[in-house]
Specification:
Elements: E1 13-14, H1 19-29, H2 33-53, E2 61-68, E3 74-81, H3 88-94, H4 118-125, E4 126-134, E5 137-146, E6 151-156, E7 161-162, H5 165-171, E8 178-185, H6 195-204, H7 209-213, E9 218-224, E10 230-235, E11 243-254, E12 257-267, E13 284-289, E14 292-297, E15 310-315, H8 317-324, H9 343-369, H10 377-402, E16 414-416, E17 419-422, E18 428-435, H11 439-443, E19 448-452, E20 457-459, E21 463-464, E22 470-471, E23 478-487, E24 493-500, E25 503-511, E26 533-537, E27 546-549, E28 554-558, H12 578-602, H13 613-637
Parallel strand pairs: 2-9, 13-15, 17-25, 26-28
Antiparallel strand pairs: 1-6, 2-3, 3-8, 4-5, 4-8, 5-6, 5-7, 9-10, 11-12, 12-15, 13-14, 16-18, 18-23, 19-21, 19-24, 20-23, 22-23, 24-25, 27-28
């Protein structure tokens, strides 16, 4: 008869970290069920890898058990392995935040470079228990977030005990060493999809692909739903079919050090899913270092339909050495992959994009040839005229965003540009700058008055209130604002005048046809050549309605996108109808305003504060649409 063992836990203790960041760290690291599973399965794999590097034979078994309730709520999650197990010092180390417990510091080839994952998964999801056996000694810990005390807490067994048969049967490790992590899900925001979707996600998540495709690992999913149906499946990942079209070594020079990366490029016959915000996609390139897949990227091509035919592998040996040396800012601290603002990552990105560009451009031409219909000459002429208009708008916006140059000394009231051409009946924006010495006039109630000295040149508003001015984003001693001017007669000349008290400023204006647009080859560095063409794209399964290509200056209208194809057909047929014109104007405006918003952000025109980036970006797009959408509609309707 097996003696029943009574397990008694010791006193409750506070997790050893500043409590103000425990929950924030956990929720930013673990945002859904799959995030938690990735961390826990990776921990099991790391444990097996440490054994293998010490030449110990392993089973490689990793069990994933999930209980899904009605509506997608998750009742419980369990991950089990037969790897090293933990003794008391290892267990205590494992539940400390930011403690390097993985072995990377000791030279092991593993993924765990933060000492993070186990605790975050438990705290973000609810309450967890870690049961572990090592050298026939059983130990256990419970970890949870105490809402009443607003603290992350834990408790350990009073002391480790012998791993009896009863204990082994209870936790599911009948022989040898191993660890079982069981999480009771208490976070109502943590949900799980149905079995079919979940199986696909577990199989294809980029960070698990080495594990799921390794013959040394045996990953098994046991999925129970609210109906009482339990499904068991072996998890195995296979890459998409494709031919290798490039394999090379590329030397990266970054400041004082270099790295030699290995790049493999494959081409698929079928279009694959985009990796943009999709860790399960098969298109894109796995960025890896020794022992770990760090990211999945297609870089600037992640919304390019031609780019979705390509996938591959980039091995970066230097990254693991930098991580061991505590290189800061290289990896996203929220486990979101690499931090692409880091100088190494920026160099890596540009190098891979340079390799991919000719292949993707070639695929674009191949796709364009399939059933493409030539755009009519009349439509081409109308679109070329529209591009001229967009280029003028873009030039005005960029000039306004760039504002004054660093060597300009604003010591008096000033209008920019000081010399400008206007197209007949088309408004143009001007900037007005007020130095700090004149602010007292505004404080006393003075207004900025605007006028023109020509009967054929008009200022859209007669005054600007102080409340409409903004502090310059680069020069805190300057206020600035904008106003519109237009002319109604070709060849008319005059001055636009601004007055503030006894001070005045003026700009010289002439109404004249716009300059001829530059060719594509002069796009680089020429604001007036940003937009070269508006063309139809007949990709069969486009990801979006319209896209601006910064490499070629083209606005591509995807005519096979649902809703677009109701009004515009092959070769932009239908764009001459009222409905087609409305649709085309909306599409062109969308591409134009989105790209100009990006350029304004790059130039520091609009203040972006942490946590408000998306809202600010959308607000800028709305502002640009209010300013230009009407002009674009008029140009297409004429």
């Amino acid at each position: 008869m097996v003696e029943k063992v009574v397990m008694e836990y010791g006193a409750t203790q506070t997790l050893p970290i500043s409590q103000s960041i425990v929950k924030q760290m956990s929720l930013s690291t673990i945002r859904n069920t799959m995030d938690a599973i990735v961390e826990l399965v990776t921990n099991s794999d790391d444990s097996y890898m440490r054994l293998e590097q010490d030449h110990v034979h392993v089973t490689g078994n990793i069990g994933v058990f999930i209980q899904r309730e009605k509506g997608g709520r998750v009742q419980s999650l369990l991950i089990r392995d037969n790897a090293e197990g933990m003794d008391r010092p290892s267990l205590e180390k494992a539940i400390k935040f930011a403690e390097p417990a993985s072995g990377i510091k000791e030279g092991k080839t593993v993924r765990g470079y933060f000492g993070r994952g186990l605790k975050e998964a438990i705290i973000a999801l609810g309450k967890g228990r870690i049961n572990t056996i090592r050298n026939n000694i059983y130990d256990s810990a419970e970890v949870w977030w105490d809402n009443k005390n607003n603290q992350g807490q834990y408790r350990l067994l009073k002391q480790p005990i012998q791993a009896s048969a009863d204990i082994r049967n209870k936790i599911g490790i009948p022989v040898g060493n191993g660890t079982v992590v069981t999480v009771e899900i208490q976070n109502p925001k943590i949900t799980c999809p149905d079995y079919k979707t979940f199986h696909h996600q577990l199989t294809c998540h980029y960070a698990l692909r080495d594990i799921n495709s390794s013959p040394e690992r045996n990953v098994k999913l046991i999925f129970s739903d609210w109906k009482g149906v339990t499904t068991t499946a072996q998890i195995s990942y296979s890459p998409p079919d494709g031919e290798i079209i490039d394999s090379k070594s590329v030397k990266l020079d970054i400041g004082t050090f270099t790295d030699e990366i290995q790049v493999k490029v494959y081409k698929s016959e079928e279009q694959l899913e985009s990796p943009r915000n999709n860790p399960y996609a098969k298109a894109g390139f796995l960025i890896r270092t020794e022992g770990a897949i760090l990211d999945l990227q297609l870089f600037k091509f992640d919304d390019n339909e031609a780019g979705l035919y390509f996938f591959g592998d980039v091995f970066c040996p230097k990254i693991v050495k930098m991580l061991k040396a505590d290189e800061q800012g290289l990896v996203d601290t929220n486990r979101g992959g690499l931090e692409w603002k880091h100088p190494y990552c920026q160099k890596l990105r540009t190098s891979i994009e340079a390799i991919l560009t000719p292949y993707i451009r070639g695929k674009e031409k191949e796709l364009e040839k399939k059933g493409a219909v030539e755009v009519s000459e009349n439509t081409k002429k109308a679109l070329n005229k529209l591009c001229d208009l967009l280029n003028r708008f873009a030039k005005d916006e960029i000039e306004l965003a760039k504002g004054i140059e660093t060597d300009t000394n604003i010591v008096e009231l000033m209008i920019k540009p000081e010399y400008a051409n206007l197209e007949i009946n088309e408004s143009r924006l001007f900037s007005l700058y007020i130095p700090q010495d004149l602010w007292n006039l505004l404080d006393s109630g003075e207004k900025l008055y605007l006028e023109s000295n020509s009967p054929n040149i008009f200022v859209a508003q007669s005054e600007i209130a102080a409340s409409a001015l903004s502090l310059h984003p680069k020069y805190s001693e300057i206020l600035y604002g904008h106003f519109e001017v237009f002319g109604d007669m070709d060849g008319a000349t005059g001055k636009v005048i601004c007055k503030l008290g006894q001070y005045s400023a003026f700009a010289n204006v002439k109404v004249a046809p716009p300059q001829k647009a530059t060719k594509k080859k002069t796009l680089s560095g020429k604001w007036h050549g940003l937009f070269s063409e508006i063309i139809p794209d007949e990709t069969l399964k486009p990801l979006q309605r319209v896209k601006y290509d910064s490499d070629t200056g083209e606005i591509r209208v995807f005519i096979n996108f649902p809703s677009v194809n109701l009004y515009i057909g092959s070769g932009l047929q239908g764009a001459e109808t009222l409905e087609g014109k409305i649709m085309l104007a909306e599409l062109v405006s969308e591409a134009f305003c989105r790209y100009i918003a990006i350029k304004r952000r790059e130039l520091g025109k609009d203040p972006y504060f942490p946590g408000t980036e998306i809202d600010t970006f959308n607000s800028v797009i709305n502002e640009l649409q209010r300013k230009y959408l009407n002009h674009i509609h008029k140009a297409i309707a004429s």
